Amino acid sequence: MNYEITDKRLYEAIYKFINDEFTDDNLDYDYDNNYDTDETEKNILNFFGDKYQNNNQDEWYFQYIKKEYYTSLENSENNTMVKEWLPNAPILEMLDREFPNKMNSFFGEYWKPVFKQWFKDVYPQFPVKTFLLR
């Protein structure tokens, strides 16, 4: 028996799945902290949830990098990196490995643009140009 699902219904199902996964109860964000210099980077935000405990980058769900981060590095020794990433900013980068694996197994590649749109809807103060998977 075959069932066909419309693009709209698939989009809605993926969006609901993401919305159920990342709720106000289990998702928060904070500015990035450079623990070597004890300075806060106001142009990078780390999004974390229940599993975040030890300020361990491997426990962040995703990271948002503002265009200003790359602009502030333009005159540094990282100029090659800046030239590569500045045109793509602001960037939302998925750091969690489990979530993309789960989404790929359920929805294939279809979940990625839905996730980007979900993020824009939930956090309109953080516009996204590029969505990356680590």
Can you offer a commentary on this structure?
13% of the residues are buried. Helix 1 packs across helix 5. The chain has a 5-stranded mixed β-sheet with strand order 1-2-3-4-5. It has one domain (26-133). It is an alpha+beta fold. The longest helix has 15 residues, at 7-21. It has helices at 7-21, 67-72, 79-85, 98-107, 111-122, and strands at 27-34, 39-49, 60-65, 91-94, 130-133. 37% of the residues lie in helices and 25% in strands.
Distance between the termini: 37 Å
Main sheet: strands, sense, barrel: 5 strands, mixed
Number of helical elements: 5
Portion of residues within helices: 25-40%
Look at the helices and sheets and give the structural class.
alpha+beta
Give the beta-strand count.
Answer: 5
Shape: elongated
Q: Give the count of structural domains.
A: 1
Strand content: 15-25%
What string gives the helices and strands in order? Answer: HEEEHHEHHE
Strand order of the largest sheet: 1-2-3-4-5
Low-confidence stretches: none
Mean pLDDT: 86
What radius of gyration results from the CA coordinates? 17 Å
Key traits:
134 residues; alpha+beta; five-stranded mixed beta sheet; 5 helices; 5 strands; 25% strand
